[in-house]
Amino acid sequence: MSKIFRVALCVFTLYLTGCSAINVEKKYRSNSYDNRIQWIVLHYTSADFEDSLHLLTNTAVSSHYLISEQPVKVYQLVDESNRAWHAGDSSWRGRTWLNATSIGIELVHPGYTEQAGERIWHDWSTEQIDSLIVLLHDILYRYQLPIESVIGHSDIAPQRKVDPGPKFPWSRLAQEGMIRWPLTTDIDFYEPIFLVELPDALWFQEQLAALGYAIHQSAEFDEQTQRVISVLQMKYRPSDFSGTADAETAAILQSLTEQQKQAQEK
Ligand SMILES: [Zn+2]
């Protein structure tokens, strides 16, 4: 039998059998598995729609979804079953390279513009955030993802990324039950205590690591620690995200880690 004939016969057999070469028995099933998708990572594109679309469809960068700004529309660029290339070198809760375990959503948004050496951060349109929230609810429901599954690119790569930035309305995601939020009662209780004595650098590093941030426990307020503190402040206390450790930031951390601990104990 010639090689060409054998290949042709094989292709014909596959065609007749519905393209299934082997019969796989699915009678016995295991319950020991979880979703490949663990997190949803939010980004902004720092570009207009045309440039964002070009970048995400013609270069080595991609995302599962792209949400335009004016008009607001949700585009799917990569199937959820495939990995999109949006996270890069990243780490969260001890896991690294999050492309494999996440869905990436890019929002068309300029981020910031530099004016006289100062960063001017741009506001977000309510309509675009409304669409994002509908999409997030849909994904969270389909994969049955728990609270705190929606994270920012800056959370998973705080040393090199700032998106979605300090103007992104994380508090709206908290209102939707997607992320935890520092409790006012906790802030009122802990801030005066931390004003008297600010916890040391190692305490800050331990709390940040407990939330999921990749941070070297150097016991110093070094540059890498300030960057992570800045990213946390952008999210929960955007009025000042200088990265300087202060009593309010310590109270925010205390509230968030306490809530996390209580949820884990349940
Ligand atoms: Zn990003």
TrEMBL record:
EC number: 3.5.1.28
Catalysed transformations (reactions): Hydrolyzes the link between N-acetylmuramoyl residues and L-amino acid residues in certain cell-wall glycopeptides
Pfam family membership, one: PG_binding_1
Entry keywords, A to Z: Cell wall biogenesis/degradation, Hydrolase
Domain N-acetylmuramoyl-L-alanine amidase: 25-165
Family stated for the protein in its record: Belongs to the N-acetylmuramoyl-L-alanine amidase 2 family.
Identification of the protein by name: N-acetylmuramoyl-L-alanine amidase
